[in-house]
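User: Can you write out an input/output pair for a complex, sequences first and structure second?

Assistant: Here is one pair. Inputs:
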Amino acid sequence: MPLRLVAEDVSVARGGRLLFEGVGFVADAGDLVELRGANGSGKTSLLRAIAGFLRPRAGRIAFEGVEEPPLALHYLGHLNALKGAASVRSHLSHWLGLFGGGIDEDVALERVGLTRQAKLPARVLSQGQGRRLSLARLLIAPRPIWLLDEPAAALDVEGRAMLCRLIDAHRAEGGLVVAAVHDVLGPTPSQTLQIGATT
Amino acid sequence: MPLRLVAEDVSVARGGRLLFEGVGFVADAGDLVELRGANGSGKTSLLRAIAGFLRPRAGRIAFEGVEEPPLALHYLGHLNALKGAASVRSHLSHWLGLFGGGIDEDVALERVGLTRQAKLPARVLSQGQGRRLSLARLLIAPRPIWLLDEPAAALDVEGRAMLCRLIDAHRAEGGLVVAAVHDVLGPTPSQTLQIGATT
Amino acid sequence: MSAFAVTFRRDFALMWSGGGALAPLGYFLGATMLVPLAMGPDRALLAAAGPPLVWIAAALAVLATLERLFQADLEDGALDQMMLSPAPLEVLVFAKGAALWCAVGAPLALAGAPAAIALQAPLALVPAVVASLALGMAAFIGMGLVGAAVTASVKRGGVLIALIVLPFFAPPIIFGAAVAQGEAVTSALLILAGCALGACALGPIAAAAALRLQAE
Amino acid sequence: MSAFAVTFRRDFALMWSGGGALAPLGYFLGATMLVPLAMGPDRALLAAAGPPLVWIAAALAVLATLERLFQADLEDGALDQMMLSPAPLEVLVFAKGAALWCAVGAPLALAGAPAAIALQAPLALVPAVVASLALGMAAFIGMGLVGAAVTASVKRGGVLIALIVLPFFAPPIIFGAAVAQGEAVTSALLILAGCALGACALGPIAAAAALRLQAE
Amino acid sequence: MLSSFANPARFMGFSSWAAPALALLAVALFAIGLPWALFVSPADYQQGETVRIMYVHVPAASFSMGIYAFMGAASFIGLVWRHVLADIAARSAAPIGATYAALCLLTGSLWGAPTWGTWWEWDGRLTSMLVLFLIYLGYIGLWSSIEDEERAAKLAAILCLVGLINLPIIKFSVDWWSTLHQPASIFRAEGPAIHASMLAPLAVMAGAYAALFGALLLFNMRAAIHRRRIEAARLRAGAT
Ligand code: HEM
Ligand SMILES: Nc1ncnc2c1ncn2[C@@H]1O[C@H](COP(=O)(O)OP(=O)(O)OP(=O)(O)O)[C@@H](O)[C@H]1O
Ligand SMILES: Nc1ncnc2c1ncn2[C@@H]1O[C@H](COP(=O)(O)OP(=O)(O)OP(=O)(O)O)[C@@H](O)[C@H]1O
Ligand SMILES: [Mg+2]
Ligand SMILES: [Mg+2]
């Protein structure tokens, strides 16, 4: 079965309040689904529901052509999952072990532009450098589905170009990306989903 | 003496490494100075040096026509300074006390678009709502100098427009803004400073 | 409201809400409960060894609340804002210490009464024990502020702060335990008051100096 | 390396580096030092009441390290990533517990030797005390994982976790203190081993279930 | 005098010969003092041979307190005048002071076993010495858990200054709590109360401890400066 992510009539509630209902989309290999919406409309909540972290109040989220998560997806949230005392390189070897092998650590570092910071503790990274390190996680273990929450946050101009290249390459290899964004991400989305537009 | 912020030949080092040297600018009332530069070039460090949190290795940072900081400036960093358990409104009354009075809490909340969230604990705010709350701090106590580190981070389209209005109004009232940015902020800057361009 | 008042109010509210004051109390009572468990049912032994242990439990309970006192402010950026307040950082640090005393220290001192009774202290001594605990808590908190400030940037600093602060807790504990054992109560109380005064006067100054460095 | 191995390695390294293991040791020794301070110089009293208190100090020392165990992972997003690993969350939680035992528990058990001697335990008992502490640490950590997991989202949860976990610490403390007092050493050691086994088997399962809820 | 060493380069020059010289002096003084103290000097009429522990114990006790005072002074200079070398000196002295304190505790308990009939007693002086040892540990622990050297130096300096309060407590503990440990017999207003045949070897041993401290301090400081240079070079290499 080919890769496909289906969301049908999904409603998500947080703290007893319904955020949105009836959201649905179908994404195939090579697709980029952009989630848009005002602050607090529920983009992050939808991504977390897809990742399986929170249970939607109604609706169905299904994966075709892959193992169920956790094996099929990467989640890049607002938080970078970095440990200040650990070095940049040790983060990569940690993720390599956690997710099961993929490309070499040095290659990943080079692609996100952190080669020279490899030995620094994550604590001293600047905001954008931290984001880049978190992006390297996507490369370390190849997984077909990427869930990206404002991936361009804190990246400089060159970093955004790098992110575009990563996403394009992932799509070209048959991957699938769902990204919550506010401004223009770069790669042309195959569809744009407006969250909470009705209110 | 009219309001003026002077930075002369400033060098900043972090952890023993020189980030940049010889940076200088003069900003007067109504000015918007944009700091640009790659990730890790030292924008945040420069802002923190101006705020007085870290001591520059060399150079002079001087304020004319105002009391020295802390009384003259607001610092909006990467971190929002929110306490998860405290309510949105209680943050405003806290800052009101901490910085000494200014406008009413409800007016500030309305201007950043959080009126409906006033009673929620900050913990449940979305990323962008948290940023808006942090922006409300700028309004609570009037201070002539605003130091903004990627102020538009996590804001939606409408939020960015709101931010532009705030900055324009502040400049019109004779304020002065120094902002680190990656993409277009909105208001026309009176000058753009490239940090770490030489390397 | 003044910067002092809002800082006090926020810290007090944050500690009090979410079972804040209940929890150190539980820790305190839990720890005093463990003592007879570990020591066995020998009444005479308990009566001799028990009351001073109230002090140890109290010291450890307040220690447990110190760890995140400044660390949280450092991590979420609130410390930057404290430094931009017109009020001196020393005053704000003092406000945080005062809030800690009110939200945790004073309830602990009151809880000292049932704990001391449970550990077989003579009833007549109980008021003195409570008073000495109240003073001792102030001394602990004054000293603890310094430990909390210098370890604020250390992740999992909770144990480091214990290592740093516990040696300084020794004098109040010695005199406090003397009160619990009914020895030289008045002079011990006076010495405790001296410790408390000194710690509350110097602690915030040293702590504020350390916090300024943490903000770099 | 496997997900278990990298989780163990990272946690061990984070705890060990930065004086990590030194600090709980200092806490432990500091706390055992407070006991005689509070109790006064009465030798006979100390010999009777002291050795079991080694256990209380050890329990409180390991408790102090538990607080931030999952809280840090929750706050920085690392918990999300753990849930996306092909390895079951239970296994990763077990790895974190094992790292804690190696970095803190085992050194604490060894430090039990000088502490027991300082608190006047007979020398012949010291090896049994160390062995019992090693087992007891495993039991404490197994149980502590659950407490740490359910309080992970509570700020300043350190005292709350104490409240939740200390009651469960009672059985190992009772039997461990028996060892320190030289009563029924072999059977007490066997019971401690049973506690440790049970806690290490069930603790990670319950903790992982709690953590899944925290991720919402 | 201190300001002439304040320049790290000059310090490296000076210490490159001073450190080995002090080390040699320490070896020589120990070579004279140890045999003298352990074999030649008279046994005590009350304590017999065990009195010889004194020659190890007393200088270790005095110097562990002296080293802390030295660290306090260095911390003060580092905080107020921002001398890098003062920070390094304070940090480098700490492990030596901690070792001396441990030595004092160890020899004290070894001595206590025959004379007081116990290894350890919770009396004022012993306890406050243990507190000093723990303060040393805390200081070292703080240093090693903050990676940013500059910040670690300043924070540790604040802690060190606060810990100075403990020194008078140790010194006067014997007078405040009249307990087991004997009060001052050497450094007191009326002059030393022990016999010259013991005082002389004690003085040699004290000199040996002092020289050893000086040598170890300089070696440690040199190592710390080298480490800093390597670290700085590494960070420079990590530039964006
Ligand atoms: C662990 C146990 C002990 C500790 C921690 C300890 C600690 C100290 C300290 C802090 C000093 C003060 C040094 C100074 O003022 O410069 C000292 C001095 C001294 N100690 Fe001990 N001591 C211990 C056991 C003993 C024992 C068992 C004896 C002999 C019976 C002893 C005999 C002395 C003497 C003779 C001095 C020199 C007193 C003076 O002239 O100031 N100590 N010790
Ligand atoms: N404590 C420290 N020790 C060593 N290096 C540090 C320390 N803190 C920051 N740095 C380094 O300083 C550099 C500048 O950091 P800064 O946060 O000022 O950059 P920035 O321009 O704001 O970047 P960004 O756009 O990513 O926010 C980074 O390369 C970072 O690695
Ligand atoms: N635990 C909770 N209890 C109650 N409400 C919550 C909780 N968590 C989140 N919310 C609410 O859910 C809404 C959606 O949050 P979410 O983070 O999904 O928004 P978002 O679309 O990602 O916004 P942003 O663009 O600002 O990141 C917010 O209004 C928030 O207040
Ligand atoms: Mg979001
Ligand atoms: Mg920045």
